[in-house]
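Dear H.,

Thanks for agreeing to be a second pair of eyes. The structure we're designing against is below in token form, covering all 157 positions.
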């Protein structure tokens, strides 16, 4: 699977049947998995949250970010404008650079800031490493991501 199923597509076979998904691997390691938020993998049989390994799915939850209150609306109005080249769907900085927040009491230093890069694909390897389940990462296929545990846990990243 090289990309999520797009809205309106109706695949004739389950594209996730042979995939090793993060929630599936974590469940196999004894964890319970849950997802809250928007689902992007389609509605076709075999593509819904509980069919790719999630034990629970809560749908879209309304969240108001305190970070949003800090934005100067004159510089960054809520219309998709941002100061970087490119945008959603591109590999330019404006398509991939978004703020992220990591919280783990007693493990991640509070107040830490970094301009380092952590790619979305790194969540797969990093989550499995933190769960002690790195050995479940498939070796018969290329997995695009690296373990970023030290970036998250070390005080200086």
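And this is the sequence the design step returned. I haven't edited it by hand at all.
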């Amino acid at each position: 699977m090289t990309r999520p199923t797009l809205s309106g597509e109706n695949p004739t076979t389950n594209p996730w049947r042979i995939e090793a998904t993060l929630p599936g691997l974590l469940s196999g390691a004894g964890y319970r998995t849950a997802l809250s938020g928007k689902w992007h993998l389609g509605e076709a049989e075999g593509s819904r949250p509980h069919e790719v390994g999630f034990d629970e799915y809560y749908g879209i939850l309304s969240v108001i970010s305190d970070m949003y209150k800090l934005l100067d609306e004159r510089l960054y109005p809520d219309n998709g404008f941002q100061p970087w080249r490119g945008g959603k769907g591109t590999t330019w900085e404006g398509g991939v650079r978004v703020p992220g927040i990591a919280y783990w009491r007693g493990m991640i230093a509070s107040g830490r800031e970094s301009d380092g890069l952590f790619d979305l694909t790194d969540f797969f390897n990093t989550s499995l490493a933190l769960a002690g389940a790195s050995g479940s990462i498939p070796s018969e296929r290329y997995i695009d991501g690296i373990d970023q545990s030290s970036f998250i846990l070390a005080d200086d990243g």
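Two observations from my side: Residues 122-130 form the longest helix (9 residues). The chain has a mean pLDDT of 79.

Warmly,
E.
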